[in-house]
Write a structure and sequence with these properties.
Layout (H helix, E strand, L loop, with lengths): L72 H7 L15 E8 L5 H15 L5 E7 L2 H16 L11 E12 L6 E12 L14 H13 L2 E6 L11 H18 L12 E6 L5 H9 L19 H13 L2 H12 L5 E5 L39 H14 L12
Length: 410
């Protein structure tokens, strides 16, 4: 498909909220629109299609607590043995432990906060209806706060300042091949949300025990979501290599001592590499000019095709960012098996959409000029729920030979 493009140079004027595509004016991107002949961002290619989701057992429930008996310590202490607390019925919930890893300021909290919104919207473009629920009070509160802040208050969640354990259940109703069968999928997800500085061994901004917890947690994880921020990486203080290499070497030492390295010496984790801020003009515009962006039809949300995502990451590291980014790319392949890595162009808030819920290149920036607030368009996360689903599916498939994936905290 031929892409017709006309992009005048940006101008610094402001922009209004409601855009009339027929009126020449300054757009939300600060672009004059008088003679725009934009038709589509579409490039040749078709999105890849994955296989059917594996069928998993439902999460067990709790036996109801028996009604309490009248208190009679004098009698019970003398003649009755103690009664144990009620136990969970059935097997322990089948789940995976996934760690979220990235430099300080790379958007880990916003990424996690976008997960419930991404799950809600996923049914619009896929055959799975996901329901995410907290498995304890604090995890449930995080879900409620995240949706309120991102979708209602249009502001970003505050960065993580202390350790936070998140345990969520994912329940999905998946449509089988051909559309004639539906099956239920469920799994549990455990994430330890830590401040970004905990992943930098040389940082003096967090306590040593918090860094030790980060090493222990990531070493014990089944899968990892690694957030690579191409804009943040340009800052020497937040260069990704500072938050990657030291942590990776300590993980390798820990896993080696536990005799869990793969035969080729690599770490056993499955890794989803997410190139963040795909919606930001400083990332999106260069990617568009380099022809990495695909749009199925005018108005559809632009994406990087699944089978091109790895090449997109290579381009980000080689041509767009360079420097330490290439070291991160090479170190990923050094510490983790290439067959256990997947890549995604990700945005936690997505693009601004018009009143018809369509992408309009004249007005796509979804952050207010102050950089603190999200525009009035509701967030439309891009590749936030997909990395978690892919990790769960890969881990589930690799465990069919035996052995449970679920581990308790420790």
């Amino acid at each position: 498909m031929t892409t017709h493009q006309h992009r005048p140079d940006p101008e610094p004027d402001g922009y209004g909220d409601e855009a009339d595509p027929l009126e020449p004016r300054q757009s939300r991107n600060g672009r004059p629109d008088a003679d725009r002949a934009w038709q589509s961002l579409a490039l040749d290619g078709k999105p890849g299609s994955g296989g059917p989701e594996p069928q998993l057992p439902p999460l067990p429930g709790l036996d109801p607590l028996p009604a309490g008996a009248a208190d009679s310590h004098t009698v019970s202490d003398r003649v009755m043995p103690p009664t144990a607390i009620p136990q969970m019925s059935g097997a322990a919930p089948a789940g995976v432990r996934i760690g979220v890893w990235g430099a300080s300021g790379s958007g880990k909290t916003t990424f996690l906060g976008a997960v419930p919104i991404g799950a809600i919207q996923h049914q619009q473009r896929a055959r799975v209806n996901w329901v995410v629920a907290g498995m304890d009070a604090s995890s449930q509160e995080f879900l409620l706060d995240s949706v309120d802040q991102l979708a209602s208050q249009h502001r970003f969640p505050e960065a993580t300042r202390a350790q936070r354990d998140l345990r969520w259940s994912f329940t999905g109703d998946a449509q089988g091949t051909g559309g004639f069968r539906r099956r239920r999928i469920s799994f549990a997800l455990e994430v330890l949300d830590l401040p970004g500085e905990a992943f930098n061994p040389r940082s003096n901004q967090v306590a040593e025990d918090l860094h030790e917890q980060a090493v222990t947690h990531l070493s014990n994880c089944d899968g990892l979501v690694y957030l690579f921020d191409p804009l943040l990486d340009a800052n020497e203080q937040t260069a990704s290599i500072n938050y990657f290499y030291g942590m990776a070497t300590q993980m390798a030492a820990r896993v080696r001592d536990e005799n869990r390295l793969l035969r080729n010496g690599r770490l056993p984790h499955h890794v989803a590499v997410c190139i963040t801020k795909f919606d930001h003009p400083d990332v999106f515009e260069p990617a568009l000019r380099a022809r990495w962006v695909y749009q199925e039809q005018p108005g559809a949300i632009p994406r990087v095709l699944d089978h091109q995502a790895r090449g997109f990451f290579d381009w980000i590291c080689n041509s767009f960012r360079g420097g330490s980014a290439r070291l991160v790319r090479d170190a990923l392949g050094n510490f983790f098996h290439p067959d256990r890595m997947s890549f995604y162009a990700t945005s936690a808030i997505g693009f601004r959409l018009n009143a018809n819920h369509q992408f309009d290149y004249r007005s796509y920036v979804n952050v207010e000029p102050d950089g603190e607030r999200i525009c009035s368009s509701p967030p439309t996360p891009i590749n936030v729920i997909e990395p978690l689903m892919a990790l769960e599916e890969r881990l589930r498939g690799s465990s069919r030979g035996g052995g449970k994936l679920w581990r308790g905290r420790g």
